[in-house]
Design goal:
α1 runs antiparallel to α2. By secondary structure, the protein is of the alpha/beta class. The longest helix is centred in the first third of the chain and has 21 residues. The strands form three sheets. Strands 1, 4, 10, 11 and 12 form a five-stranded mixed beta sheet that branches. Strands 3-2-7-8-9 form a five-stranded mixed beta sheet, with no helix packed on it. It is built from six helices and twelve strands. The N and C termini lie far apart (about 45 Å). Bound molecules: benzoic acid and fe (iii) ion. The site of fe (iii) ion has 4 residues, from β7.
Length: about 280
């Protein structure tokens, strides 16, 4: 770093030394250090810096109450996954968490164990998901809530698709006295993350695709335990090795086996960590 570059950075960093909110000052100093370093490392031209600003402006302009393009940017750069990794309080042996995604809608209907989350007609292969929720010491957790959502076979969530009933492929299940749960659904499909905005345009420009590996979302919670936001992935899915939002964890991949009645069945046991 040249003397004048060093002097500039020191001067900017010092302006945050007396922030009323100490954490905010610390965060902004780190932003300045890293962005100055990036500009130096890449020897950015003026046009390149303006290009970056135009891109971020377009990302902001794409956002409204239902569309969050900055979250999509964070997802596709692996930052959302990193934030999840460093913030999950799960103990060794507990179920791994992954990204929530933008299509979670609280308030799904409560459903009885064994019930289907399918409300509308769907050409997908029928799938049963069954499991037991336990604590890390193996004790079953009765009364745990399992909030489930997935896309229909057209690759769209009910919240994205006016053709679907609002409660299609969503539901909250409660584990029985032995910690067991079971629900019926359809085999999840691969689908594209929203690719009609600046993030969607960036991906092909760098040789990437917008596809997610086939998955079902779950949030599992119980009083006295750390909730876990996770997915079950289909072991036969494409894109497991190149998921557009870096959400795949090996421990969450399951084989879907024939159930003997023309459908499929899989097991997804969930291990929860007691709250600290
Ligand atoms: C999802 O799995 O629903 C999702 C996650 C991140 C970005 C887009 C969709
Ligand atoms: Fe999803």
């Amino acid at each position: 770093m040249s003397g004048s570059e060093q002097k500039l950075q020191t001067e900017v960093l010092a302006t945050f030394d007396h922030s009323g909110d100490q954490r905010l000052g610390e965060v902004l100093q780190a932003v300045v250090r890293h962005v100055h370093e990036l500009v130096r490392e890449l020897q950015l031209s003026r046009d390149e810096w303006l290009g970056a600003i135009s891109f971020l402006t377009a990302v902001g302009q794409m956002c409204d109450e239902t569309r969050q393009e900055f979250v999509l940017l964070s997802d596709t750069l692996g930052v959302s996954s990193l934030v999840e990794m460093i913030n999950h309080l799960g103990a060794e042996g507990s179920t791994e968490n992954t990204v929530l995604g933008p299509f979670y809608l609280p308030g799904a209907p409560g459903r009885a164990n064994g019930e289907s989350i399918l409300v509308d007609d769907d050409p997908g292969l029928r799938l049963t998901v069954a499991g037991i929720v336990t604590a890390v010491d193996g004790t079953p957790v009765p009364g745990a809530m399992i909030d489930v959502w997935q896309t229909a076979s057209n690759g769209r969530y009910a919240v994205q698709d006016e053709a679907q009933s609002p409660e299609n492929l969503r539901g909250v299940f409660t584990t029985d006295g032995e910690g067991r749960f079971e629900f019926q659904t359809v085999r999840p499909v691969v689908y594209s993350i929203p690719d009609d905005g600046p993030v969607g345009q960036l991906l092909p420009a760098v040789g990437r695709h917008p596809m997610r590996a086939a998955h079902i979302h779950l949030i599992v919670s119980a009083p006295g335990y750390v909730p876990v936001t996770t997915h079950v992935f289909d072991a036969d899915s494409a894109y497991l090795a190149s998921d557009a939002v870096f959400g795949v964890r090996d421990s969450l991949i399951r084989s879907f086996e024939p159930d003997g009645a023309g459908g499929l069945r899989t097991t997804f046991d969930v291990v929860l960590t007691p709250s600290p």
